[in-house]
């Protein structure tokens, strides 16, 4: 019957994402990242193999590498989605699997808490051993307070990169958006840094990551302000300090988290032996202490579920407008 087909179509275009993403986040909450055969690790190996074939100290070859890796991943996601597009339950299951594969919120919180637990116990050696699981800073150059600050900054940035950005692109483009965004983000981590070896080859990956991460970073900052303890402070820090950050996406997120938590972030840090002096975010705040790690993890979790609500609502409204104009 026409009415029944229309109802099925409505489910396929709107509710599939809400149900699938909710299920995927629930699985992530229960299990964390897949322990074996992680799809992101498989993508990394494939991208590395493609890099070995295309690597030149040239932006054009780097752009080709980016197009092959990201475009190929999104195409596989589109093919998988196409095979189940007329089966809402299968589509929701595929979305759930994709969300579980690309979202890393539970593992992010687990690693942050591991460092926080070591710091609380006064075991700096263990904290330094675990810190590289979260960020690429030189742990030997950091004392306890500096490691706590690094963890909070990493939780903030990765909430956007590993959770919110993926859900936003999933809401916009379904499974291809989910896996495509994670491919962009992973590729940027592999070749997008400004080392001499990748300054040109990784340029396209870094710029694409900036572009793809833009909406998720702003949504993360808005939701951190809304869900944190000091909305006005979060918005004030975002407005005053974000633009001075070297990253156009990490700046708003870290500034909003700093204001929401009432702490100071930024300042001097070390990557791979290279010292950077970054601007202070929320200079009116206090120094980060170990207890702020747990507060940051809880704020990240609240932002995650608020993102799901915003994305599902956005898809429902877009679907309603499309039906009205049809």
Question: Can you walk me through this structure?
Answer:
There is one protein chain. The chain is built from eleven helices and two strands, in the order ααααααααααββα. By secondary structure, it is mainly alpha-helical. A hairpin with a 2-residue loop joins β1 (265-271) and β2 (274-281). α8 (203-227) packs parallel to α10 and α8 (203-227) packs across α11. The radius of gyration is 20 Å and the shape is globular. Residues 1-10 have low confidence and may be disordered.
Secondary structure elements and pairings:
Layout: H1 2-31, H2 39-54, H3 59-83, H4 88-102, H5 105-120, H6 124-130, H7 144-191, H8 203-227, H9 231-241, H10 250-261, E1 265-271, E2 274-281, H11 291-325
Antiparallel strand pairs: 1-2
SSE order, one letter for each helix or strand? HHHHHHHHHHEEH
Multimerization state: single chain
Spatial order of the strands in the main sheet?
1-2
Low-confidence stretches: 1-10
* Coarse morphology: globular
Quick check: average pLDDT?
92
- Report the β-strand fraction as a percent range: under 5%
The total strand number stands at 2
Give me the number of helical elements.
11
Computed CA radius of gyration, to the nearest angstrom:
20 Å
- What is the SS-derived class? mainly alpha
Helix residue percentage:
over 70%
Could you give the distance between the termini?
A: 19 Å
Major beta-sheet overview? 2 strands, antiparallel
